[in-house]
Specification:
Elements lengths: L3 H28 L31 E9 L8 E10 L29 E5 L5 H11 L11 H5 L15 E10 L2 E13 L10 E8 L10 H14 L5 E7 L3 E9 L3 H9 L9 H14 L6 E8 L10 H11 L5 E7 L6 H10 L4 E4 L2 H10 L1 H5 L1 E12 L4 E7 L19 E4 L3 E10 L29 E10 L7 E8 L10 H16 L10 H9 L9 H14 L4
Parallel strand pairs: 6-7, 6-9, 9-10, 10-11
Antiparallel strand pairs: 1-2, 3-12, 4-5, 5-15, 7-8, 12-14, 12-16, 13-15, 16-17
């Protein structure tokens, strides 16, 4: 037996050597694939205000030709000159074989009592991703996970017929109160903000960086190809004074197209068409490079924004939520905003993208089909890309003589401490041109039987009712808002009160009823403990009375979606 061991060892060594040689041969064969590098020469145009079109981008099977770019002179000059061509080898297409999507856990807001918690403070939210993602689940025949159902985003997916602001204010505040549909013994308070609509021609020049995830996980029809179609739609909206650059990332990051005038749409679209997916996902490196490019082409008093298109599956370099958030919090100080467009199914990382957009002073949308891209990037072009007010916070003080308990519907991820309202260093939400924001409070009036609030002993040192000058007032609440100019650091204050209206005089608007219908739908999808007497049939009936003009058909689509959800046995 001992004599056989050397022979067996030799055979094993020969087998290992052969396998190693085969692997090395495969690597050498792969390395022999042709790589095309093209030097690009820019010629200065007759008019310095219009940059030249970069040469058409050429790419081998696995290699992008990348340009590192500096500017001639100051950051707002229009001529970009390539100083170095650099090739970034992308790994062959690799698609993850797992099927998991990431959603944050939502702990629903509870009923609070004004005696112990008189203030409710939160940041506005203009994200719309939750609704289109929920729609994707329902249309595919499944009930969305509770973490995907963010009620405030579903409500804010829709436009509301609010009046335009007056007196040079960036937005108008609208309030309304009526019976709560899912519990008519309660009241529902509707708070709306209408951002000032700036005509397209009057919008400031844009410095946009497309940051595109071209990793292997994006190699699906509803991912990179849909990203490309969406980017081309946005390209059609660009003006000559707008500029766009394209940064890609997979195993590493590179600049595919230097900052280029919106006048050269064909050049931009050609660069978009050349993108292919393959490799791992160095999202952190891509974000850093995109901020660098945006800073180098910064337009003072302009719209400087990165648009990240991804499924959110970062797995190389800075990839944890904490690392990415810290990076973006640091980078946003440059005045460059970050918007996130989410794509795809299977490994869609919703919670990560929501955090990135929030910390990047931008918005988060989910693109499940080309019609959604058209809505976000064409119909809502101004509100998606052009900020008119930042760090917008709302603080509501409730009158305990009128309100026994209150609950903010949604906005769980946007709650702030009471003291954050006056703290201008605390980050909050942004409002875009023409954008509407809606928030709903469910209120239990004084004298109504309540099973939601757990009672505590009477407080010894609170002000006696006899000393409260507002005890007999008809004020239900006082609403305060703080906001900053897009490039400002000091907030401004707006205050408004809501008075109690007798039930005989209540006549709710389409805005009120439709937003209530969407909120009730969200409660049912989440199987919320606060859904009370809500039903799908009630949602449908309420929405059908509040369709209004519905020029784009979104409210009609909502009603159809609720009917589909009903067939999925959502209760």
């Amino acid at each position: 037996m001992r004599n056989l061991l050397p022979g067996a060892a030799l055979l094993l060594l020969m087998t290992f050597t052969a396998c190693h040689q085969t692997a090395r041969d495969h690597k050498q064969d792969a390395a022999k694939k042709p790589v095309v590098t093209e030097k690009k020469v820019f010629e200065r145009p007759d008019e310095a205000s219009v940059p030249p079109a970069p040469g058409e981008l050429k790419k081998s099977e696995n290699t992008y030709t990348i340009q590192e770019v500096t500017l001639n002179g100051s950051a707002d000059e229009s001529i970009a000159e390539p100083v170095q061509d650099k090739e970034v080898l992308l790994a062959p297409n690799t698609v993850s074989d797992f099927n998991t999507e990431g959603y944050g856990h939502i702990v629903e807001n509870k009923f609070q009592t004004p005696q112990t918690d008189p203030l409710s403070t939160f940041s506005i939210d203009v994200d719309e991703a939750s609704y289109s993602n929920v729609r994707r689940f329902i249309e595919s025949g499944s009930v969305p996970p509770a973490g995907a159902v963010r009620i405030e985003e579903m409500v804010n997916y829709f436009d509301y017929d609010y009046p335009q602001p007056q007196n040079n204010q960036p937005f108008e505040v609208i309030t309304e109160m009526g019976d709560c549909p899912w519990n008519t013994s309660h009241k529902l308070v509707h708070i709306g903000l209408q951002g000032k609509t700036i005509p397209l021609d009057n919008l400031p020049a844009s410095n946009i960086v497309f940051l595109v995830d071209v990793s292997g996980s994006m190699d699906e029809p509803n991912k990179l190809p849909l990203v490309q179609d969406a980017m081309k739609l946005l390209t059609d909206q660009l003006r000559e004074k707008d500029r766009v650059a394209i940064v890609v990332y997979a195993g590493n990051a590179g600049l595919v197209l230097p900052s280029t005038s919106g006048a050269f749409k064909t050049t931009i679209k050609n660069a978009i068409s050349e993108l292919e997916a393959g490799g791992s996902t160095a999202g952190g490196e891509g974000i850093q490079l995109a901020y660098k490019v945006a800073r180098e082409n910064f337009i003072a008093k302009g719209n400087n924004r990165i648009i990240l298109a991804t499924d959110g599956d970062f797995n190389v370099g800075a990839s944890s939520d904490d690392e990415l958030v810290r990076m973006i919090e640091k980078e946003r100080k440059s005045g460059v905003f970050l918007s996130v467009l989410g794509f795809g199914t299977g490994n869609y990382q919703d919670n990560k993208m929501q955090q990135l957009a929030d910390k990047g002073n931008g918005n988060h949308s989910y693109i499940d089909q080309i019609s959604e891209a058209r809505k976000v990037l064409i119909s809502e072009f101004g509100s998606t890309l052009f900020t008119i007010a930042k760090d917008v916070k709302i603080q509501v003080e409730f009158n305990p003589s009128k309100v026994q308990a209150y609950r903010l519907v949604g906005y769980e991820n946007r709650m702030l401490a009471a003291e954050d309202f006056n703290d201008d260093t605390k980050d909050a939400g942004e409002l875009g041109s023409g954008h509407t924001v809606t928030a709903l409070y469910e209120i239990i009036p004084v004298g109504v039987a309540d099973s939601f609030v757990r009672k505590v002993d009477n407080l010894k040192y609170q002000q006696p009712k006899s000393l409260n000058v507002f005890a007999e007032s008809d004020e239900v609440m006082t609403i305060k808002l703080r906001y900053k100019e897009p490039d400002g650091e000091t907030s401004q204050l707006i205050t408004k009160t809501l008075r109690d209206i007798p039930a005989s005089q209540q006549k709710t608007s389409d805005n009120f009823r439709f937003s209530a219908a969407v909120a009730e739908f969200g409660l049912l999808l989440r199987n919320s403990e606060y859904k009370q007497n809500g039903t799908m049939n009630q949602v449908i009936s309420l929405a059908e009375t509040a369709k209004g003009q519905d020029k784009m058909g979104y409210r009609k689509e909502f009603i159809s979606l609720v009917k589909t959800a009903t067939s999925l046995a959502v209760h």
